[in-house]
Amino acid sequence: MTPEKLYAEREIYRTLVAFAYAMDHREWEALETFVRADVTTDFGMGSVLYGREAMIKAMRSFLDDCGPTQHLLGNVVIDVEGDVATSRAYVSDMHKGVGDKSEVTFSTLGEYHDRWRRIDGTWYMIHRTKLNRATLGDISVLGPGFTNN
Q: For the domain that residue 127 is a member of, what is the CATH number?
């Protein structure tokens, strides 16, 4: 593997981790630095979302009313070909309730499948699919969710 591909893999991996951190710390503006404005997203909810605003709105609809969260990534595989790349990563996310639900949790086991493009030397996410494999706990700890309007 060439040093250029290794560097690209490392940059994409760091961006995956930064994305998870931004979700857990509700740093929505941080996503603008590594997600293209024209990103497409499929969270496994029955529709594809178009654009960064729609992606962030959907994530906020679940996480803004939730307590602490932690999105852990593992088994990450990144394939780079020139200025395009794909990645896949296991995700195990834990969500804790707030208020009268502070002792309630909800978790998912799934995978992120992402597509990337290098533009002016920087890697940007251009598509995310989340495949949900299993859920555990009480989904009511999350916010009400989104509608694709």
A: 3.10.450.50
The pTM of this model reads 0.93
What is the per-residue pLDDT across 7-65, written as a single tens digit (0 to 9) for each?
999 999 999 999 999 999 999 999 989 999 999 999 988 889 999 999 999 999 999 99
Residue at 103: amino acid letter: E
- Rounded Cα gap, residues 108 and 54, in angstroms: 22
State the Cα–Cα distance between residues 15 and 34, nearest whole angstrom: 7
Residue 65 maps to a domain = yes
Tell whether 146 is covered by a domain. Answer: no
The answer to whether residue 103 is domain-embedded is yes
Amino acid at site 14: R
Let me know if residue 44 belongs to a domain: yes
User: Do 123 and 8 contact (CB within 8 A), yes or no?
Assistant: yes
Q: Are strands 122-137 and 105-119 parallel, antiparallel or unpaired?
A: antiparallel
